[in-house]
Design brief:
The protein is an alpha+beta fold and about 260 residues long. The protein is built from ten helices and ten strands. It is globular, with a radius of gyration of 20 Å.
Length: about 260
């Protein structure tokens, strides 16, 4: 969608510029003092996320003649969280609220999304490795671990997971309101999928008990095993992603990260 077309769509006086991001589908629109965040074909449950205060307020949604949907959200003045701020109680509280939201889960299921189970994750990784003919010892060890542990990580209480809880996706406003943005990759899965990456990446192990208590759980052996399983599977997926794009240096870095979990 071109910026000029968007300006015509919004009407006289609006100026639009790209907001960046991987998809290139996000824009900032401004008319005088009024400023909004626009996105094309954003998450279908943006309205629920907005209603629950998880993302900035949804102002309107419009379907175009070609079937595309444009959403406008209130522009908020804020900043991304720093990596060291991920240990804050507000992060644990918001993620606990997201994972505990029955409204989000119901909405996600209504649009036909099935839970992403460990069996499906393992099989998808196996097929990708086969398709791209990736043979590598750390990956082989990781896949063996995933297969061996499959029976031990069965979990039935699936939730809506963001699946990319990088600190860059957490926005803190000037009024100290915390949001988790960029929901394009959201899935229904074991909450350990989000928790594992967050804790292993940002929280010192001696602080896990306190952080998980703030989130609303006890840190038991089952949760720790499931978190490790998902972090290993996500690491292998990341290696494949970088290799597909010939980003060999990043792939090697992820392999070194993977090895730390297999010792």
């Amino acid at each position: 969608m071109r910026v000029n077309w968007l300006e015509m769509f919004l009407g006289e006086g609006w100026k639009v510029k790209p907001a960046g991001g991987i998809t290139g589908e996000a824009y900032i629109a401004q008319q005088g003092d009024q400023k909004v965040f626009l996105k094309r074909n954003s998450s279908p449950f943006l309205a629920v996320l907005s209603a629950e205060g998880i993302v900035p307020k949804l102002l309107w949604t419009k379907r175009l003649e070609n079937g595309d949907v444009v959403t406008a959200q209130r522009w908020v003045h804020g900043r991304e969280l720093k990596s060291y701020e991920m240990k804050k109680e507000m992060v644990a509280n918001l993620l606990g609220k997201i994972h505990g939201s029955s409204e989000l889960l119901d909405m996600f299921k209504r649009i036909g999304n099935e839970p992403l189970t460990p069996d499906v994750i393992y099989e998808n990784l196996r097929l990708q490795l086969q398709l791209f003919d990736i043979v590598d010892e750390p990956i082989k060890q990781g896949m063996n671990y995933l297969e061996e542990k499959l029976p031990d990580i069965d979990y039935e209480h699936y939730v809506v997971c963001h699946s990319d809880i990088n600190h860059n996706n957490w926005m803190l406003t000037e009024e100290d309101q915390l949001y988790l943005i960029d929901w394009d990759g959201a899935i229904v899965a074991d909450p350990a999928l989000d928790l594992g990456l967050l804790l292993h990446t940002y929280i010192s192990k001696e602080d896990w008990n306190d952080w998980i208590a703030q989130y609303g759980l006890d840190l038991g052996d089952s949760l720790q095993e499931r978190m490790q399983w998902y972090v290993i599977s996500q690491s292998i997926a990341s290696i494949i992603w970088h290799l597909e794009r010939a980003e060999y240096e990043q792939a090697e870095e992820m392999k070194r990260y993977l090895i730390t979990f297999l010792k």
